[in-house]
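Example protein was shown:

_____
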Amino acid sequence: MNSERVFGLPAEAGRYGFVLLGLVMNLCLGSVYAWSIFKAPVEKALDCSATQGNLPFMVFLASFAVTMCAGGSMMERIGPRRLAIIGGLVAAAGWLLSGLATNIWMLVLTYGVVAGSGVGLAYGCPVALAARWFPDRKGIAVGLVLAGFGGSALLTGRIAGALIGDPKALPADMLAHSLSRTFLAFGAAFAVLLTLLALPLRFPPPGWRPRGFAPAAADDARHAVDRRAMLGTGSFWALFACYFIGCLAGLMAIGISKPVGSDVVHISSETGTALVGLFALCNAVGRPLFGWLTDRLSPRIAALLNLGVILAASLAMLRAGQGTTALYVAAFACFWLCLGGWLAIAPTTTAAFFGMAHYARNYGTVFLAYGLGALGGGFVSGHAKDYFGSYTLAFLPTAALAGAGIVLAALALKPPAAGGRPDAA
């Protein structure tokens, strides 16, 4: 099996090509993390409330999670190449159709449902490839692939900001035109790029392992844990709940990064756009960082560190106000970093706790926590703004949830009994 070659190189070296491909694919797929650049223009151009302005983002991420779950089963049947091409084209179609949207509900359908579903189908392909080609270092490989998704807003946010313009300076009709142009440009680019990037994708042959690598006996014991057995373990529910908490806090922050800067801290539109790029870099760094911590320490320790940072950032934001720029930057950098961390902790923990035999289906189920977190975070931030006039109070629930998550991770986030039988967690 070690005679296998990848991109013309021995597989142990050539497999890094899949990490690079996955990273670039995720730069495209992760453009949803630039939504805070779109949020204010959408609300002004389409005349909708803060809660309604969150809906395309929330529905995108919920659709993403649901189709990610279904995509795990599809990948086993048709392979990563075909599924990534299908998902990429559906995502591109959603962006293109969003360029024709004339009200918020059309945008929820085109951007939220169509584009979100396409991203959900394609997203799992580079993640599963990284986990299968790197059984010896799953955490760092998955983290590097997902760094593209987290860092996407660093690039796509700047492009979107330049194409849309300043929402405070432009009238609604001009914003509507620039929004349409931006959605169409992104959709056309993604149709080409995602198709080309998906063409080389393939899983390793059955039984392939890097030279000199032998899985631990504990991994062999959990090698065949299927979704039904996984659902019967306390380990799954602890992971799911902690993942939900991390995603609710992180996705809420991502969706309102620029509006909080403008409305609470009173920074300029240009500074807000630049800071979204900085936050995206933190999100990208969080994936390999927490993937490495999960590999090096344990899922439990990585989760405790992550949730502790979320708690500290939430408490800090309760003190935010005009002129507290340094506090805002530090807190939101932590939120973005920690969300990126969970998107490495969760897939790595799924593989470590439940094995690789049913990984695509198992992680697809775990990933539903991401979609629920997106819905929860969007409603929390939108209602805080609409009913209390400020986003600041949205950080009370995230602080409380992070505290609960710390207790849960400490008590229950542990490997299941051998064979995936229900454990005592």
